[in-house]
Amino acid sequence: MLDTLSKIVEGEVRTLILGENELMASREYDVSQELVFRAWTTPDLLAKWWGPKGFKNTFHECDMRPGGTWKFTMHGPDGVDYPNHNVFVEFVPTERVVIDHLNVHEFRVTATFEDIDGRTKVTFRQRFKKKEEFEKAKPICIEANEQQLDRLGKVLAELADSFVK
Question: pLDDT grade, residue 6 (50/70/90)?
């Protein structure tokens, strides 16, 4: 089932290629599951870290409930805009968020949050609907997902610091 292990940026980050159409990346953060879930389910926080390094987001619609629509534009550092249309599939407080990405390359994101002695392990799975779409997007998505997890870590550190002060 496991075809390849790709190690990208900052030594401790890994993206696995599972089967013929799925990526999986995981990372541990020194914060609670509650804080991680908040960063995933608060639109203002989500907008700060979603997407690769250098990208900014404009949310047009963000109805965070199962069946709710999430439409936004990712603004690339090169000036290119990338419209996105998603539907929230599932929320399990402090444990899981599932999102269907419906445009360009169709895929499902499943993010799980696991407590490990007060730290939280985030596992980010991206399963494409079609193998051909996966092959086209794979090189970009591997790096983009790693950068996104880096950005999430920075937002979580800021949130944790704000609670300490």
Answer: very low
Q: Is the pLDDT of residue 22 over 80?
A: yes
Q: Please tell me which residue, 10 or 14, carries the higher pLDDT value.
A: 14
| Domains of the chain, residue spans | 2-164
Q: Dihedral angle at the C-alpha atoms of 103, 87, 15, 142, nearest 10 degrees? A: 20
Kindly indicate whether the domain formed by 2-164 is annotated with CATH number 3.30.530.20.
Answer: yes
Taking only Cα atoms into account, the Rg of the chain, rounded to an integer number of angstroms, comes to 15
**What's the pLDDT at 85?**
98
